[in-house]
Write a structure and sequence with these properties.
EC 6.3.4.5; 2 domains; alpha/beta; elongated; 14 strands
Amino acid sequence: MPSCVLAYSGGLDTSVILGWLQDQGYDCHCVYVDVGQPCEDRQAILKKAHDCGAKSARIVDVQEEMCRDFAFPVVQWQAKYEGIYLLGTSIARPIIAKACLQVAREVGAEAFAHGATGKGNDQCRFQLAAEALDPTVKIIAPWRMANFRATFPGRTEMIAYCAEKNIPVKASTSKPYSSDENCLHISYEAGELEEVDNCGVTIPDFGMTVSPQAAPDKTEQVTIGFEAGLPVSVNGKKLSSLAIVQKLNEIAGRNGVGRIDIVENRFVGMKSRGVYEAPGITVLYAAHLQLEQLTLDRDLVNLRDRIAPEVARDVYYGFWYTAKMDALLAFIREAQQPVTGEVTLGLYKGTIEVHGRKSPNSLYDAAIASMEGGGSYDQTDAEGFLRLQGLPGRVQGTVRPRKY
């Protein structure tokens, strides 16, 4: 029998897909890739997969790797898709594909199956990542297959199929929205959120942040330490990459920091409304930027800022395992070498204030920048500087007089 690896969550969609793949003659190896999604009993998910006929089932925990090798380099780039979205789901998909492909190689499976729809971005991220890692892999995306959609036009048919096959699922035929969670963020979309004039802070039952109105009436300070642009500590305590994200999720979340509402442009072309909460990563972006202002020179930051939107697009689209991304990650590792130090932020009812910043590599020199008299800056030097800067304008003004 042909065999495939299925990115398996144990929810309605992947439970149905597991049964359907077996109906098509596949041996299925289920892989629950742990990226920090909520789950009361992961062993129960594996048992369910076995009970439903999976050839094998396993859990692969990639949370530390995802924070260290995927999320933190994106923070170093200050990459935000369309200037807002912090890429929490986009970052998770290539490492899920990687984990599934590693299992496929181990068990000798020739195909990789996933439950992403044919309308969304995740199908792109899964496929582009998988094919880059193994160009020979067969991708099975049931939601893009006409016979699967004909069999399961909606949730009612999926629930009925599970009842017929004795597949236990917790699902209802209608939901006000859908959500996807990992250790970096939670995304909310679909359902009532598809009406873009609906208020995005009143529909989701937020899981990582309190509302700013319910946050404490007192500012909470948090100090984040960086080495070469990578977060290494919170409030003076050295922590693993995952522990840093988790700690900042806790601190920022209780202060109502990190909610985002965006109408974004999906890779496949349509616009989509999403509501996100990413408390810890929001704080990391803010702290990292403040430290860069001390430690990086103007031209390097300007170059990074010109490229960052392209990095964000490539991550969002799913082009993680490419020569271009390899080069971009190598560039940012080198560019971030001086970004070492600490930043103290004040969190208050959804807002972030800068309370302090320091670095052994600071380029800020008060003697030069001071507006007081004296110092090491000779103001007369500006005369020649501005004469040279203004030379092209003066020549143009002579040849092409402007009306004023």
